[in-house]
Known about the structure:
About 25% of the residues lie in helices and about 15% in strands. By secondary structure, it is an alpha/beta fold. The chain has one domain: 3-Layer(aba) Sandwich (Rossmann fold), CATH 3.40.50.850. It has a six-stranded parallel sheet, with helices on both faces. Strand 1, helix 1 (about 40-45) and strand 2 form a beta-alpha-beta unit. The longest helix has 14 residues, at about 135-150. It is globular. The relative contact order is 0.19. Bound molecules: pyrazine-2-carboxylic acid and zinc ion (ZN). Pyrazine-2-carboxylic acid binds next to helix 3.
Amino acid sequence: MTPMPELSIEADDALVVVDVQHDFLPGGALAVAEGERIFAPINALLPRFPRVYATRDWHPPDHSSFTQHGGPWPVHCVAGSHGAALDQRLCLSQTARIVEKGVDRKTDGYSGFAATDLAADLRAHGVRRIFVCGLATDYCVKATALDAKAEEFGVVVLADASAAVNLRPTDEDSALEELRRAGVRIANSTELLGQIAMLAAAGAHLEPNEAFDRAVEI
Ligand code: VGL
Ligand code: ZN
């Protein structure tokens, strides 16, 4: 087997952090059991990317994906609620762009590209490839990555910086397999952080992230 080409962060890359909101974390309405495992890798990656987007699931109170309206999910991420807020353990800098999705009552809004200006904003800023991570691998991370591919961006899903709902225990593996088949690269954050360790060893100057110094407010 030919080895995969090495991964490194380029000037025309962006990181897209999907739905790291209270409702998708332990204690939330639609909690991803292993959700908290993503903070360390995502926070290590955030300051390395020239451009960062964070999506928020942002539903009206009568959203069609809620069980009382015939949908599959409990009420979650109602616009403006505590559950819909981004978790403060995510060390986002002031320059991160927030993308709201699922705003319309009738569409599930799994993808960060569905009825948003994400694709236009990426193109306007010369982004050619996105690295996708966050919650949940088997729903919004998958849908966002597939749409990015359909929009002809290069796409890498960071598996260790994402976590799955796993309604069925195999859902995460199936999602990653579907992504691979669609031409999405699956990688781990360590493949990128390895590059950072090498730069540090060579004495390269690395920008400190002031957000790391911020107190954790949860
Ligand atoms: C999501 C279910 C419903 C997600 C959003 O962020 O993966 N999952 N809404
Ligand atoms: Zn939702």
